[in-house]
Amino acid sequence: MPAPATFTKAAASKLGWSVKVINGGLTPEQNKNAMDQAVKDSPDAVVFEGLDSSVFQSEIKTLKDKKIPTIGWQTTDTPSLPDFYVIPGPSHYDLLTQAAAAAAMVAGKGKPVIGHIAVPTFPIYKNTIDPAFDKAVAGYCPDCKVKTFDMPVTSLGKDSATRIVNFLRSNRDINVLVHDQDATALGLAPALKGASITGISNVGIYPTAANLPNLADGSETALLPDPFAEMGYLVVDSLARVFTGGDPATSVALTAPVVLWTKDNAPQPVNNALPAAQPGFEQKFLTAWGVS
């Protein structure tokens, strides 16, 4: 089960709610079919994660007409409170990209030539994270180069390492790679070794638990985890406010935490998953909800 669904279900269970998970897929047709199914189910609320809503605007309108609150999780949609809103708010991405750019500066000893491994299939990267990262790099080092490689989403977990090796062969001056989705760093170290490419530091945005050992062995220097756990609780908190006649704006305005892990402060995986970015946060929500 995807991490967003896992943590949303965990938070919802504290209030006795049930959550049905629908696979949104990777293609526009699959995205639309998933939202069609959500509309047919006529639930109390709908949450879609990372999808390009341009292909299912009619479904969003139907949900609005039915007065079913809808949440875009890590999307670039324009919110329309109280029936349609986006979590997290934009402040998260400014902090995230500033931290990623700072990590690249450190890895490149103040003068990095950055290879940015982008995954533009997802709107939140193409329209928000990627341009904000470029801006953050320019703020630290106006003369530093950022060379972008657009990774096909279908290459994740397949031939991404081979594609990156070929990208580096064509750009020999790159000394730091910043990965939009840190899955592209998995399996990269042996691929670089096999290609006799050295001197590359890796910074990972939104890693998986499988990336954590890379900090210990030095194949990655910094990781910026996706605060899935905290956002799952934010989603439920916002809906709890709507269902009780309140305003979800308080939840939407909260900044999802941004942390940076290195080999010196990296935690251990919990049940083969990344731990929360902010340990102990759950109790704050439970207290607010009056749940023990």
From TrEMBL:
<comment type="similarity">
    <text>Belongs to the bacterial solute-binding protein 2 family.</text>
</comment>
<dbReference type="InterPro" id="IPR025997">
    <property type="entry name" value="SBP_2_dom"/>
</dbReference>
<keyword id="KW-0732">Signal</keyword>
<protein>
    <submittedName>
        <fullName>Sugar ABC transporter substrate-binding protein</fullName>
    </submittedName>
</protein>
<feature type="domain" description="Periplasmic binding protein">
    <location>
        <begin position="9"/>
        <end position="245"/>
    </location>
</feature>
<dbReference type="GO" id="GO:0030246">
    <property type="term" value="F:carbohydrate binding"/>
</dbReference>
<dbReference type="GO" id="GO:0030313">
    <property type="term" value="C:cell envelope"/>
</dbReference>
<dbReference type="InterPro" id="IPR028082">
    <property type="entry name" value="Peripla_BP_I"/>
</dbReference>
<dbReference type="Pfam" id="PF13407">
    <property type="entry name" value="Peripla_BP_4"/>
</dbReference>
